[in-house]
Specification:
Blueprint (H helix, E strand, L loop, with lengths): L2 H11 L8 H4 L7 H17 L9 H9 L3 H7 L1 H15 L9 E5 L5 H9 L5 E6 L2 H8 L11 E6 L19 E6 L3 H4 L2 H14 E9 L7 H10 L2 E7 L9 E6 L6
Helix pairs in contact: 3-5, 6-7
The structure holds S-adenosylmethionine.
S-adenosylmethionine binds next to helix 4, helix 6, helix 7 and helix 9.
Length: 263
């Protein structure tokens, strides 16, 4: 097959699918990684001096630590994550969702910086719900703008845990099979373990529709191999591993929910 026919075949195969090439999307996010790293380091030192320790898998400690930060402090300590989100999330979603309005969740959304990347990438008319248990961060997230590159998404926030029945912004339990895409950035691999992690993955499996996409973050506390096994047990097919840069040890692992037999 010639190069031209290969290009044509690739274009035909991706017709009707959402395209969000990371090289284009990252231009809308933060640059200057050195400045981001410097602000993060300086702020982490200041927080440690005040006894605020957020690197934990104890939910009560994590919630209290994040709730005790100002929005500026949260954004500084979350700076590298936010920089990475603009590269990783588009790489995770590119070519996997239909190019029509979708329903998405952003688990552990903090001040809405990963939500902003989702809202920017998803098709015009999509709805995105960020879920976060540190209430002060939810309030900051509600106050932001969420531009979309091709139109407008509806973005709302729910204050609550991702380790029990997931709720929408009105406090209602999200229905089984009603979501097309679940994203987590800086959450599973940093803050969830044991029963909490299992409960969160059960919820991801419950709310996603057949062929729905889960872009989930491995990290220091959760290897990508363990995450892959846990998702395979829940009926998901692994699609790809994405990273913001070759040195990124976290990034995301992307899965598709298989249609159940007979569905
Ligand atoms: C590293 S921050 C990432 C924030 C955001 N996803 C981003 O990429 O900018 C992790 C967030 O997860 C939240 N979080 C941790 N455990 C949670 C839980 N069990 N339920 C809801 N939110 C949680 C924390 O409060 C924090 O805001």
């Amino acid at each position: 097959m010639s190069a031209a026919s290969l290009r044509l075949a690739a274009a035909e195969a991706s017709a009707g699918l959402l395209r969000c090439p990371p090289a284009e999307v990252k231009e809308a996010g933060p640059g200057n990684l050195a400045g981001v790293v410097w602000r993060q380091w300086r702020t982490e030192r200041a927080l440690a001096a005040r006894g605020i320790e957020f690197r934990s898998a104890d939910p009560a400690q994590v919630e209290a630590a994040y709730a005790a930060m100002t929005a500026e402090e949260f954004n500084a300590v979350n700076g590298r994550q936010a920089w990475a989100n603009w590269r990783t999330i588009p790489a995770s979603l590119d070519g996997l969702l239909p190019d029509e309005p979708v329903r998405a969740l952003d688990l552990g959304c903090g001040t809405g910086r990963s939500t902003a990347v989702l809202a920017y990438c998803l098709p015009d008319g999509s709805t995105v719900t960020g879920i976060e248990f540190a209430v002060p961060l939810v309030e900051v997230a509600r106050g932001r703008e969420y531009p979309n590159r091709s139109g407008r998404c509806t973005v709302r926030f729910a204050a609550g845990s991702v380790c029990g029945p997931l709720t929408n912004a009105d406090g209602e339990t999200i229905a089984d099979g009603s979501i097309d895409c679940v994203n987590s950035s800086g959450l599973l691999g940093h803050h969830l373990a044991g029963d909490d992690l299992q409960a969160c993955l059960n919820e991801v499996a419950r709310v996603l529709t057949a062929n729905g996409v889960a872009a989930l973050d491995p990290g220091p506390g959760l290897s990508s191999a363990t995450l892959k096994r846990a998702m395979a047990e829940r009926g998901f097919q692994f699609v790809r591993r994405t990273r913001s840069n070759p040195l990124d040890r976290c990034g995301q692992a992307v899965f598709i929910k298989q249609a159940s037999e007979g569905a």
